[in-house]
């Protein structure tokens, strides 16, 4: 197992390099880079993508004779354009910039945001509580509901219970999460009906003044609507996966043998079937959590004003805040690869018969 883990860890190096290289190449052809963002701001042609245009707010002047390769830069002082290029690192050739980025990232030095006066790692840490809350609770709720329901559906396969619950699951999966979020907002968050739940943030403004029991209630009060909207698709997927996994195991020969030995259906189900059927469900738990933790739901974060990592990544792409874009891509890719390895190791922990180092030739 040690050799397998070492091989997987070593394979992460070229995988990460390839991800970053392809992303870097694509970015080179994307229009509207950070220099163009600042030019649009200072010439009044664009929105406020940045709060910090140049380090220290350098003065600039118009020069009708200046020429620039940047769109919208006509009439700006070439020295001002050159200063922007130096600030953002575009005075260096692309290959040198990529090499410097990889070297810094290998030392976990992610630099500073172009348009926010904060380091990238501090910015990610600042947004992380929202993503942790959403990812953790979505995963736990979906598993707590879906596993018992999926087992029950497998046992009652073809019955009236299986049919009507399947209808509910399919409808839940078909409803877009953001559409359901809007419906919840209209119904329960001061829309056209009730004003029971808040719309913004994870806590109230007076959260620091509340007692601990009140803080806990306030926290879940804010999470109720976002979690309800986001859990639908995860709930449906896990339920059907659990049912199909149990059905596949129930139909195998060892189950027939266990029944022939006189074991009760409950003993057959939980002593024999459960362990094998839950292998794929439990092993997928880290991946499900990381997926919810990092991606969550961008639209739902926006609807409920939850400033998490998903919204951060989206805004960074729009603002062309490349340090944040590449750093989040690098961190998320690295954690994704580590979680994939962890999922494989969980297979061996749940079922010791699985050995990734033993292969039939």
Tell me what you see in this structure.
The chain is mainly α. The chain has helices at 2-28, 34-42, 78-88, 94-106, 120-155, 160-174, 177-188, 212-250, 253-260, 265-283, 285-294, 298-303, 309-319, 322-350. It folds into two domains: 24-120, no CATH class; 121-350, MetI-like (MetI-like fold). It contains 14 helices and no strands. The two termini are 18 Å apart. Mean pLDDT is 79; it is low at 48-67.
In the CATH hierarchy, what is the class of the largest domain?
A: Mainly Alpha
Low-confidence parts, pLDDT < 50 over ≥5 residues? 48-67
Structural class: mainly alpha
Strand content: under 5%
Specify the biggest β-sheet: none
Q: Could you name the CATH topology of the largest domain?
A: MetI-like fold
In CATH, the homologous superfamily of the largest domain goes by the name: MetI-like
Number of helices: 14
Number of domains: 2
Span from first to last CA? 18 Å
Give the CA-based shape.
globular
Radius of gyration: 26 Å
The counted number of beta strands is 0
Task: Give the averaged pLDDT, no decimals.
Answer: 79
**CATH architecture descriptor text of the largest domain:** Orthogonal Bundle
Q: Which H/E pattern describes the elements?
A: HHHHHHHHHHHHHH
Percent of residues in helices comes to: 55-70%
């Amino acid at each position: 197992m040690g050799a397998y883990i070492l091989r997987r860890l070593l394979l992460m190096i070229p995988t990460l390099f390839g991800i970053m290289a392809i992303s870097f190449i694509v970015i080179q052809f994307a229009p509207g880079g950070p220099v163009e963002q600042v030019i649009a701001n200072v010439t009044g042609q664009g929105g406020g993508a940045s709060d910090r245009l140049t380090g220290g707010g350098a003065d600039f002047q118009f020069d009708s004779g200046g020429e620039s390769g940047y769109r919208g830069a006509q009439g700006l002082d070439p020295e001002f354009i050159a200063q922007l290029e130096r600030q953002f690192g575009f005075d260096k050739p692309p290959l040198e910039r990529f090499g410097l980025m990889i070297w810094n990232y290998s030392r976990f030095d992610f630099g500073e945001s172009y348009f926010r006066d904060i380091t990238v790692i501090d910015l990610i840490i600042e947004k992380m509580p929202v993503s942790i809350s959403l990812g953790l609770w979505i995963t736990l709720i979906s598993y707590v509901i879906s596993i018992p329901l999926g087992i029950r559906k497998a046992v009652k396969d073809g019955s009236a219970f299986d049919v009507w619950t399947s209808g509910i699951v399919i409808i839940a999966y078909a409803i877009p999460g953001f559409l359901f979020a809007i419906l919840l907002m209209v119904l329960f968050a001061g829309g056209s009906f009730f004003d029971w739940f808040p719309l913004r943030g994870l806590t109230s403004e007076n959260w620091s003044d509340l007692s601990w029991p009140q803080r806990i209630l306030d926290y879940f009060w804010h999470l109720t609507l976002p979690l309800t909207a986001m859990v639908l698709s995860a709930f449906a997927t896990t339920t059907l996966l659990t049912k199909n996994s149990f059905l596949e195991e129930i139909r195998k020969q060892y189950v027939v043998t266990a029944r022939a030995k006189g074991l009760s259906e409950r003993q057959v189900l939980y002593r024999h079937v459960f362990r094998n059927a839950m292998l794929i469900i439990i092993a997928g738990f880290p991946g499900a959590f990381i997926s919810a933790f990092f991606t969550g739901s961008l639209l739902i974060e926006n609807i409920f004003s939850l400033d998490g990592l998903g919204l951060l990544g989206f805004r960074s792409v729009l603002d062309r805040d490349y340090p944040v874009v590449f750093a989040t891509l690098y961190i998320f890719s690295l954690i994704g690869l580590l979680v994939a390895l962890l999922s494989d190791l969980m297979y061996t922990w749940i079922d010791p018969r699985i050995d990734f180092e033993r292969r039939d030739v």
